[in-house]
Design a protein that fits this description.
The protein has 4 helices and 6 strands, in the order ββααββαβαβ. The protein is α/β, with parallel strands linked by helices. The protein has one domain: Leucine Aminopeptidase, subunit E, domain 1 (3-Layer(aba) Sandwich), CATH 3.40.220. A hairpin with a 2-residue loop joins β3 and β4.
Length: about 140
Amino acid sequence: MQEITGELWDFFGKPLHVICITTNGFVKKDGTGVMGRGCANEARFRVPGIAKSLGNHIALHGNHVGFIGPDVLAFPVKHAWYEPADPKLIEQSVEELRREAVLTPHVTYVLPRPGCGNGRLSWDQVRPLLFGLPDNVHVITWE
């Protein structure tokens, strides 16, 4: 894992880059995933159909890491949108992202600090959970 400073969306569409969107496992009655805050909300406006793609992904695979758009990976941090982020779920997502990143070392994965902000966890709580990630995973912050 490498820590970087910048804007997540500067990497969207950049060759050999995948952006990771922090998500929750809640699917609405219309089949779309809830993407109401943070980078997930930004994704709704930047990637057409991504909320439906997230809902389909959750319906098929559960609340797990997976591709939900072109070069966009869901990274679950919450079970439901109204709950705080779950450190155990973050650990699960870290392991799933680690496996993906190890299989594709030529790809750079850009992940915002998961569970911080709308997830109500501090970076001091979350940072130790990320230590198993390889160097092609960049954790980005705007500070």
